[in-house]
Design a protein that fits this description.
mainly alpha, 11 helices, 78% helix, 0% strand, disordered N terminus
């Protein structure tokens, strides 16, 4: 029974910002059952939240070794590679695998779009991924926002404004710096 509880306690400690306690609880679960992929994945999450990308990636690798169909482990490893280490090609490969396993993995499309746009400057691919994330979850404000930024970089200001208006209608505030840049580039106020 404690094998099932410990990694979940680790998640609770991570939510509270108690990452060392989360890691300790996951260590206990792994000690009891070294083939418990969830415990490795949760420990990886705690390491990632502490800014320890290499340790996180190592834990996600172990979770994937135990369960090669663990979409969330690929996704989280992609986040660690992309956001943690700036290795966008590896991040994209992991998001691809997560999407292959779960074709409706909204966050994987979204983060792959971020990797293509912010990481590689490939805005058409980024827009396609944001579109897919929005198709799956039409209330995904961050996808509209980042798609608007991608349109801005493509100089498609009308579509950028459409996305700005969409997220504002959803109750989200647009970053003032982005609004200022969009106003200057488009020559209009809104």
């Amino acid at each position: 029974m404690s094998v099932l509880i410990k990694p979940h306690q680790g998640v609770l400690f991570s939510i509270k910002g108690q990452y060392d306690q989360a890691i300790a609880d996951c260590n206990k679960a792994i000690e009891i059952n070294p083939r418990f992929a969830l415990a490795y994945s949760n420990r990886g999450n705690a390491h990632a939240l502490k800014g320890q990308s290499d340790e996180a990636i190592s834990d996600y690798n172990k979770a994937i070794e135990i369960n090669p169909r663990y979409a969330e482990a690929y996704y989280n490893r992609g986040v660690a590679y992309g956001k943690g280490k700036g290795q966008y090609d590896q991040a994209i490969a992991d998001y691809n695998k997560a999407i292959e396993i779960n074709p409706r993995y909204t966050e994987a499309y979204y983060n792959r779009g971020v990797a293509y746009g912010k990481g590689k400057g490939q805005y058409d691919q980024a827009i396609a991924d944001f579109n897919k994330a929005i198709e799956i979850n039409p209330r995904y404000a961050e996808a509209y926002y980042n798609r608007g930024i991608a349109y801005y970089y493509k100089r498609d200001y009308e579509k950028a404004w459409d996305d700005v208006h969409k997220i504002e209608s959803m109750g989200w505030q647009v970053h003032p710096g982005f609004l200022k840049a969009l106003r200057e580039a488009s020559g209009r106020e809104n």
